[in-house]
Amino acid sequence: MPSALPRWKAYAYSLPTLLLPGLSHWFLGRRRRAVAFFCIVGATFWVGLLLHGALFPFHAPNWLYRLGALAEVGLGAPYALGRIIGLGRLDMRDAADLMFGYGNTFLVSAGLMNMLLMMDAFDIAVGRKE
Amino acid sequence: MLNDHFLSLAAFSLLVALFFATLNHRDRRGFWKSVGKTMAWMVVGSLLFAYFMLWTAR
Q: Which residue, among A17, A14, A13, has the nearest Cα to A76 in the 3D structure?
């Protein structure tokens, strides 16, 4: 892998993370880190769903949930797939659930972590980071 | 098991600590030091803040 790639290629390298967390790092030759990121972000996502967290839609009833959707969309394919098959459906009755807030925290964090992974992959690709 | 506030907090802190340590550290010693530090700040800080809220709510 060359140490510094042109910008358009670096952008292209940062995108696979939207399909699967850590995939960009895998293509950049950071295989061990890619597996670690996949496990960490994957675990954060699944624990969030287990705790009845919601994958917020962009047409959610309040602005805080819409902001949550903006963070969760950083997960990419898992978010889209979850929304399509009905995982983490937003049900206002769940808002009274003791663990609803925790679940959302895990899911929002998973989305934000994935966005950071994209930026990290970009930095590696342009040679700013090892 | 995760229907417990403290365990959820600990699990969340551990995942976040592991993520940032993997992102920023290459050496094993620095990695575990970072995990311990981040976890300690998150768990202890959250507990202190929770007790502060409890104290001010009385």
A: A17
pLDDT digits (tens, 9 = 90+) for A29-68: 999 999 999 999 999 999 999 998 999 999 888 899 999 9
Average pLDDT, chain A: 91
How far, rounded to the nearest angstrom, does the alpha carbon of residue B34 sit from its chain's CA centroid?
11
Residue to mutate among A45, A75, A98, A102, with most B CBs inside 10 A, is A102
CA contacts within 13 A on the Cβ side of B56: 5
Looking up tokens 């009905």, which residue turns up?
Answer: A86
Domain membership of residue B48 as a residue range: 5-57
Question: Residue A125 in contact with residue A14, Cβ under 8 Å?
Answer: yes
Q: In the predicted model, is pLDDT for residue A21 greater than 80? A: yes
Instruction: Provide the domain count of chain B.
Output: 1
The distance of B22 to chain A (nearest Cα, Å) reads: 7
Could you give the CA distance from residue A33 to residue B22 in angstroms, rounded to a whole number? 7
Would you call A37 and B15 a contact, using CB atoms and an 8 Å cutoff?
no
**Interaxial angle between packed helices A31-50 and A100-125, expressed in degrees from 0 to 180 and rounded to the nearest 10:** 160
